[in-house]
């Protein structure tokens, strides 16, 4: 249906019920109800909130509330706000040229009222798309009232010969310019207290006042905020009267299952590297993905890491991208056509891990790199236990106990690795428990072997020195013995990548 271009046509279509005329909050409510009736997805790309966060958001919108989303870093708060645009109508009519997107049928701007009074039904109208009706502001301490609400412009007053209290002298801020749409404020506690006070009227009475003059605008908009609870004391706080005026407070959380976390990481990470540069196919085995996700789960419960700051989902996303990059590097150096990630690539991804958490005092003493390595080791142990629970690995441990030695680097090619481990009885057979069979490619089999060796190390059945030199170790119920660690200067010179040396 062609949209009307004149005010008279718009009035007739609205009167006939062909075009809805309603407030923004009513518009969001009605469109949400339609989606609920049709079972359409409400927030595509938001994973793990179906039973917790999304029902609360639905209730807030159905109640026509302004709301705030509270959560730690990396919990999709901003993405949820931006997804609200999908609940807006495709287009709404506005008075063309108006700074605050005035409604032709209920104007609040004095200049628009004058234009409509003069032209009446012949006034041209414009249409504003849903994307243009979303205004987002990142709160920072330097934001002023003028930025948010507006200010009196003396130049406008002088040029027009107007009193300063005249509404035509106002230079509008972001809030009035969001009229007829959604106004989102990220990190609300970062706003200075007096700026937060300036939001009182719009949240309760639905209007704004400019510069102390009796200039009032009855704005039609929906307001949504985000905040990190940790920021209440770290950088600022939400003033109590403002919190009281926000209709609903919704709390987010980190993924509660590894499966949900893997879905988010797969959705957000850049893993498909078929960009014409390497021409290789990327394969990240499931056990590698699980280890990457488990690192975040381990970090969120580690006493050496500040839990109040949280550990963002960006950690596994960045880590997985680095893991794939290291696998790419190895494939290029080894002239392999397939890029297959290994557990050792996770250790090479330390730079993508150490910057994603804040350390407590004990962690500071130990150092971020050592804390990250401990997280990887405990993550490998948990994942390895899940894949190999009840599986007999004594033949492999026995081989090391008998004096066997392996020297493997994260840059070792697949065929070279398989040649070295061919002498270990029962090792290749264990790969089937990692979902890899003899018919799979050499890079996949090498990844499974690497997983088993790392798992045995994490499970303390073999151990290694600082040069990643693995050996048999004492374990209750095991006859394996521990020898003193030693250094190999030749190995150190051979790197680019660190050597993992399995030995007795």
What does this entry look like structurally?
By secondary structure, the protein is an alpha/beta fold. The chain folds into 2 domains: 245 residues, P-loop containing nucleotide triphosphate hydrolases (Rossmann fold, 3-Layer(aba) Sandwich), CATH 3.40.50; 246 residues, no CATH class. Helices cover 41% and strands 14% of the residues. Strand 8 and strand 9 form a beta hairpin. Helix 14 packs antiparallel against helix 15, helix 14 packs across helix 18 and helix 20 crosses helix 22. It is elongated.
| Whole-number tally of structural domains | 2
Coarse shape:
elongated
Number of helices, counting only DSSP H or I runs of 4 residues or more: 23
Low-confidence stretches: 476-497
The chain-level mean pLDDT equals 86
Helix content: 40-55%
Biggest β-sheet description: 5 strands, parallel
Radius of gyration: 31 Å
Quantity of strands, as a count:
17
- The largest beta-sheet arranges its strands as 4-7-10-1-11
N- to C-terminal distance? 79 Å
List keywords for this structure.
Rossmann fold; 504 residues; four-stranded mixed beta sheet; 23 helices; five-stranded parallel beta sheet; 2 domains; alpha/beta
List the helices and strands and how they pair.
Layout: H1 7-15, H2 24-38, H3 53-62, E1 67-70, H4 77-83, E2 91-94, H5 110-119, E3 126-129, E4 134-138, H6 145-148, E5 150-152, H7 154-160, E6 170-172, H8 174-177, E7 182-186, H9 193-197, H10 200-204, E8 207-210, E9 213-218, E10 222-227, H11 231-234, H12 240-245, E11 248-251, H13 258-268, E12 281-283, H14 286-301, H15 314-334, E13 338-340, H16 344-348, H17 361-366, H18 368-388, H19 394-401, E14 406-409, H20 414-421, H21 427-430, H22 442-458, E15 462-464, E16 469-472, H23 489-494, E17 499-503
Parallel strand pairs: 1-10, 1-11, 4-7, 7-10, 12-13, 16-17
Antiparallel strand pairs: 2-3, 5-6, 8-9, 14-17, 15-16
């Amino acid at each position: 249906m062609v949209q009307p271009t004149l005010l008279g046509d718009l009035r007739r279509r609205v009167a006939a019920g062909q075009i809805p005329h309603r407030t923004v909050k009513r518009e969001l409510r009605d469109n949400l109800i339609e989606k609920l009736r049709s079972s359409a997805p409400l927030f595509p790309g938001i994973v793990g909130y179906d039973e917790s966060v999304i029902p609360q958001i639905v209730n807030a919108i159905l109640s026509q509330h302004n709301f705030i989303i509270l959560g730690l870093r990396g919990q999709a708060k901003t993405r949820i706000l931006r997804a609200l645009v999908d609940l807006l109508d495709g287009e709404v009519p506005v008075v063309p040229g108006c700074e605050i997107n005035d409604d032709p049928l209920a104007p609040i701007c004095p200049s628009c009222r004058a234009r409509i009074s003069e032209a009446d039904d012949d006034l041209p109208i414009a249409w504003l798309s849903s994307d243009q009706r979303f205004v987002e502001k990142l709160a920072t301490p330097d934001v002023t009232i003028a930025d948010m609400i507006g200010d009196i412009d003396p130049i406008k007053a002088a040029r027009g010969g107007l009193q300063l209290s005249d509404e035509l002298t106002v230079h509008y801020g972001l809030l009035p310019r969001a009229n007829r749409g959604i106004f989102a404020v990220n990190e609300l506690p970062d706003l200075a207290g007096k700026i937060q006070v300036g939001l009182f009227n719009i949240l309760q009475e639905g209007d704004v006042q400019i510069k102390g003059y009796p200039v009032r605008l009855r704005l039609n908009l929906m307001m949504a905020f985000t905040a990190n609870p940790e920021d209440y004391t770290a950088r600022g706080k939400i003033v109590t009267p403002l919190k009281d005026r926000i209709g609903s407070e919704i709390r987010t959380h980190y993924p509660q299952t590894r499966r949900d976390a893997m879905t988010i990481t797969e959705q957000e990470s850049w893993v498909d590297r078929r960009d014409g540069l390497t021409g290789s196919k990327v394969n990240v085995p499931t056990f590698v993905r699980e280890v990457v996700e488990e690192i975040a789960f381990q970090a969120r419960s580690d006493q050496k890491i500040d839990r109040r700051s949280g550990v963002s989902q960006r950690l596994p996303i960045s880590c997985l991208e680095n893991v794939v990059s290291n696998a790419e590097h190895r494939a290029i150096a080894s002239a392999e056509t397939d890029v297959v990630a290994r557990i050792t690539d996770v250790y090479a991804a330390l730079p993508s891990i150490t910057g994603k958490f804040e350390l407590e005092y004990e962690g500071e003493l130990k150092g971020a790199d050592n804390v990250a390595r401990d997280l990887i080791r405990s993550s490998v142990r948990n994942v390895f236990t899940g894949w190999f629970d009840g599986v007999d690995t004594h033949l492999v441990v026995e081989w090391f106990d008998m004096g066997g030695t392996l020297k493997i680097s994260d840059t070792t090619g697949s065929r070279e690795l398989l040649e070295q481990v061919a002498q270990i009885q029962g090792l290749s057979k264990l790969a089937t428990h990692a979902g890899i069979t003899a018919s799979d490619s050499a890079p996949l089999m090498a990844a499974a072997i690497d997983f088993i060796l790392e798992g045995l190390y994490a499970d303390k059945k073999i151990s290694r020195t600082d040069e990643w030199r693995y050996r048999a170790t004492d374990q209750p119920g095991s006859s394996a013995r521990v020898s003193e660690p030693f250094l190999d200067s030749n190995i150190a010179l051979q790197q680019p990548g660190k050597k993992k040396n399995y030995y007795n």
